[in-house]
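Next comes this protein.

***
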Amino acid sequence: MARLEPVLEELEAEGKLRRGRLDVWFARKRRPQMETSIREAGEAYAIIKDGGGLLGESSSTRVLYDLHPGAIYLHKGVQYRVVTLDMRDRVAVCRPAGEIAYYTRPMTEEESEILSEDDSMPLGKTVVKFGTLRITERVLGYRKKHIFTEAPMGEFPLDLPPSIFTTKGVWMKVGDSILEEVRGRGFSIGGALHGAEHAMIAALPLYALCDRMDLGGVSYTLNPELQSPAIFVYDGHEGGVGLTRRGFECLRDWLASALELMEDCACEVACPSCTQDPRCGNNNEPLDKRGASMIIRDWLGR
C-alpha cells in the first residue's frame, strides 16, 4: 500500500479519486470505465454516416488502413465510401456507396525503430531480441480490386500523415550465409524475408489469443539500425498487449509451426493458406515460401 500511496494522492489531486474512511478510495465519476476504450490504449475514432448517425468505432492503429478517404467500409451488409477522415477530431464520415463491385486495400509502408531491448535468446546462427519498438506506418494510397475476380481496378495515391506508435515486438538478423544459399537456389531474397515474416504472423495465433490482424511486421534486406537483413514482428496495438512476448516465450514451437505452415501447403511459391497476408500493404509482393522455409530451417538448425 505504501508504494501505491503517491499514485493515489496524485489521482486525488487530479480530481479522479477521493479518500474515504478506513483508507478506502472511490472514483469521483459515477462510471469512469466509460472513458477507457476496450479496444486498445489509443484513442478511438468515430465512424459517422454523412447526415448523422453513428456507424461504429475504429482503433487509432487501424483507422488509416480501414478508413482512409476513398476506402470502402462494410457495415451490416451495406457498403459505405469514406468521404473524409478528420485526424484532429477523430471522426471518419461515410456515405452509402450503392451497388459497387469492388473493394479497397491500402498501399502501405512500415518502419521500425528499436527503443529498448528487454530480452534476448540465441537461436541457431542468430539471436532473437524482444523489446520496445517505435513503429511508423504510412498509407501511401489504395487499390481497387474486383470483388469476385480480384482483378485490379486502379491505384489511387493519398497524402496522409503517418501513424506512429510505441509497442512491443521481436526481431532477428538474418545471416549472409543462408541468404547466399537462397540466392544460389534462384529464390528471391526479398521474397524469402517477406515470406518468413508473413508465416510467423500467420502462426502466432496458434500460441497467443489473437488474430493475425492484431499483429504487424516488417522485413528488411538491410535494416539501417542493425546493418543487416532483419525481420520484425510486433503487436499491432499501442503499448503492446503481450502477443509477441508470448511468441518469444515459445519461440522454437512458434517458428516450427510457421515452417510447417509453409511446407505442408501444396502451393509452389505463395498462397493465402501459407504466406499471403490480407493486411499486406505491398500487395503480397515479393513472396517466396521456398526461401522463407530455408531461413527458418537455418534458425532451427534443421
